[in-house]
Fold:
Amino acid sequence: MNEISVVGAGLAGCEVAWQLARFNLDVNLYEMKPKNFSKAHKSENFAELVCSNSFKSTKEGSAPLMLKKEMQLLNSLTLEVAEKEKVDAGDALAVDRERFSKELTKRILANEKINVIRKEIKEIPDGLVIFATGPLTSESLTKCILKKIGKEELYFFDAIAPIVYGNSINYEKAFFASRNDISSKDYLNCPMNKEEYLNFYENLINAKTANLHSFDKPKVFQGCMPIEIMAKRGQDTMRFGPLKPVGIVNPKTNEKYYSIVQLRKENLESSFFNIVGFQTNLTYSEQKRVFRLIPALENAEFLRYGTMHKNIFINSPSVLEKDLSLKEDGRIFFAGQITGVEGYLESAACGIAVGKILGERLKNNKEFKFPETSLIGSLMRYITNEENASNFQPMNANFGILPSLDEPIKGKKERHIKLSKRGVLDLEEALK
Ligand SMILES: Cc1cc2nc3c(=O)[nH]c(=O)nc-3n(C[C@H](O)[C@H](O)[C@H](O)COP(=O)(O)OP(=O)(O)OC[C@H]3O[C@@H](n4cnc5c(N)ncnc54)[C@H](O)[C@@H]3O)c2cc1C
Structure:
């Protein structure tokens, strides 16, 4: 049998390799780190989470939970390790990012079917190839892929939120609680009164941003909008978004606030915190100045500042088949964010899908199809639907991409629960 090369040991690449190994297939997994790093990657471990440490909601009737259930049915390595390395985060699955990547790397390295090769791939390898090199694919490989598919690249900008040291937070001015749960210790809340908020807002909208080279008006992904761009949409926009105070009460004083910035634990020891929703393109010195206007962060020290990056993706609807192989050359597949799925979970799920399809084909001579009612099936349909080619934009897991129910249900929550049950059951059936 032809050699199988998976390029990129991110979330998608590790899942592809893991799935193929489950089919007892030998895989070469190429990763350019630690020899070369993209501008956002810092760790030499695999499946690095470059921004938030969250795998999103675990709420019943949410799209991220539906996707997680489907991934679990397919033995997702990402979720198995995430469960082991999770930190408290209320209705979300969040992990200690260091431990998560370390453990996942350990499992990949221990797998006898996966041969890890630390090398930057610059040309298309022989045999069967799966490119899972992500939104920050190295420059030479990007050029090589674009030449192969004969298309212009597509891109958008994505931003990273800062992380602060726990011991630099003023705990006199912050308190633990979750939305609608006064006893929870999952989020550290940094409240502001109206005057403090307005001062913060004014400084934020006038703060200096970092240069994004030739792009004056960068296209940003709505789900990861820089806080300063959000603020410029209106004085109260942030108070309806990441700075929403609704449902958060100070357990010590029973006080409610005009706005609240939430910090999420980065690790079990609570020595680092991520500022939720504060992805930004402000210069480092401006981040320090402006974010320190939040009273509890007045002396905050930054472990990592926020940054903004150009994310590339291919025009999957025009170049990929339904199984995510290249129309031009059926031995080449794509998986993960480079295909135009958006998000950690979605990228991992896309890797699982490619691994499953290929594994069934190579080992069992079977063409596996994901049910259209499943989120994985719908994401794949979306990114390969030719009708989406002319205005293709990255897509995350959401109920809007699923086929509607036979019998319409009015209530949104009930409808979503029903859609989830239908999709997960259909996938379960397809896997029998
Ligand atoms: C700045 C930024 C912030 C983001 N924030 C979030 C977030 O908060 N939440 C969220 O859900 N999603 C976020 N995303 C989106 C997306 O979910 C992640 O990028 C996700 O990691 C994509 O997974 P992937 O496996 O496709 O790619 P990656 O995780 O990027 O993995 C690709 C791997 O390929 C390697 N590689 C690249 N080129 C080569 C080569 N030529 N040879 C060998 N190896 C190579 C890289 O080193 C990397 O390890 C963010 C993306 C970016 C860029």
